Amino acid sequence: MSDNIPDPEKLRDLDEKLREARGRAPLPREETPPSKLGIAFRLSTELVAAVVVGGGIGWGLDRLFGTSPFLLIVMFFLGVAAGFRNVVRAAGRLNAPDPPKRGPGR
């Protein structure tokens, strides 16, 4: 039973280490810019995902309502428009100037 009693000296050392660790500020991390291949994959994925989702919704609505190709075509083109919009927005965010970095207390 006496083995479960913690050593007060070890607890004080641990407390000091915890206080010291909490007092230190984390090191700032430099963010690496995305690679050109990563950017290309992101933008192409934005476009393809929107087209597939739009086409899938159109196909599902056509099956539900029995309006065979009509809603598939409409939703496909809406998906294309949404995909282009997403690509333009994502590319705009990638090309936006970085906001000034502010440190603590500034």
Please describe what this structure looks like.
- This protein has helices at residues 8-23, 36-65, 70-95.
- The protein has 106 residues and is an all-alpha fold.
- The protein has a domain at 50-96.
- The longest helix is centred in the middle third of the chain and has 30 residues, at 36-65.
- The model has no long low-confidence stretch (mean pLDDT 86).
Short overview:
The chain is mostly helical. Helix 2 runs antiparallel to helix 3. It contains 3 helices and no strands.
The proportion of residues forming helix, as a percent range, comes to 55-70%
Report how far apart the termini are: 54 Å
Radius of gyration: 28 Å
Tell the overall outline.
elongated
- Class derived from helix and strand content: mainly alpha
Biggest sheet statistics = none
Average pLDDT score: 86
DSSP summary: helix tally = 3
Percent in strands: under 5%
List keywords for this structure.
mainly alpha, 3 helices, 106 residues
